[in-house]
Design goal:
- InterPro entries: Class_I_gatase-like.
- By secondary structure, the protein is an alpha/beta fold.
- The protein contains six helices and twelve strands.
């Protein structure tokens, strides 16, 4: 071939090689894009799986509708009974709807029960379920336990205060309700539960061999007696995920349920009788230390 022919062949070879390189690059980009889309789908799926339910507003039927929020941590199992752990501060409601209202002795008795063996713990009281006082307590970032004693009358609580209480629990705090029909009703009203009071069932009530092991309740008394006024809840009406720690014949008198990062605990004894109830007192101290 002539010189011009050799140059034409060389140019053709270069163009062929360049075309092959372009094809390889296009294929690589397509593969990378596919991998990125797949990774994005996996990440989106993982994010979706991390969503948790948070109580929001009323659903129109006395319940609570649900909205989703991204969780930022993973719950660990219930804390075992470590002697060194106990809350430094506790909020105790003592408003006009409760038997504690205006009764300094009864407030002192309940504080003594909570502080036995933990005298450094500070038990503070507040006296109104109006929006501002509830928000003040819920926004106290130094205190992570709140106790509601039994109610002598059903409390009137604003929807904003209900939302604040749900948010308080959702962010990792613990609310403990003491026994009573009004307590069950308030839990239903605030958290959207469907708790049903059980017909009277005589004690004693036995520690659950299924749920107590590995929790703070494991080393508590094997049974608690029917001392004082005890109000049980039908186990079949407990919210999903709830665990009964003391019960008998389908009636639970001590149970807890996770609510996002926090915990809601019910103790069926109203604790009005402050003496000769050491077994129940141990249960109460365990409940605030969950």
């Amino acid at each position: 071939p002539t010189l011009r022919g050799w140059e034409s062949m060389r140019v053709a070879s270069l163009l062929t090689a360049l075309g092959a390189a372009v094809v390889v690059c296009v294929a690589f980009v397509a593969l990378a894009g596919s991998s990125a889309r797949q990774a994005g789908r996996v990440e989106l799926q993982q994010q979706s799986q991390a969503l948790a339910l948070v109580g929001s507003s009323s659903d129109g039927e006395g319940g609570v509708s649900q909205q989703t929020t991204m969780l930022k941590a993973v719950w660990k199992p219930l804390r075992p009974q470590f002697a060194e752990f106990y809350p430094d501060q506790i909020w105790l409601y003592a408003g006009k709807e409760t038997y504690l209202d205006g009764h300094g002795k009864e407030i002192g008795d309940l504080k003594s029960i909570l502080r036995r063996g933990h005298y450094q713990t500070k038990v503070m009281t507040w006296n109104s379920l109006a929006v501002a006082p509830v928000r003040s307590v819920c926004w106290d970032h130094t205190t992570h336990v709140m106790i509601f004693p039994p109610f002598a009358e059903y409390p009137d609580i604003h929807d904003i205060a209900r939302k604040d209480l749900r948010a308080y629990v959702s962010t990792g705090n613990n609310v403990v309700f003491l026994g009573g029909f009004a307590s069950m009703g308030l839990m239903n009203d605030i958290f959207g539960f469907r708790l049903k009071a059980d017909v009277y069932e005589a004690g004693p009530f036995y520690r659950s061999p299924r749920y107590a092991p590995g929790t703070i309740f494991e080393y508590l008394p094997e049974r608690v007696g029917e001392v004082g006024n005890v109000y049980g809840v039908k186990i079949s009406s407990l919210p999903p995920g709830a665990r009964s720690y003391y019960d008998t014949l389908g009636e639970s008198v001590v149970w807890s349920v996770r609510y996002d990062f926090g915990m809601i605990t019910y103790i069926g004894n109203d604790m009005v009788e402050a003496f000769q109830m050491e077994q129940w007192h141990k249960v109460l101290r365990a409940a605030v230390a969950i």
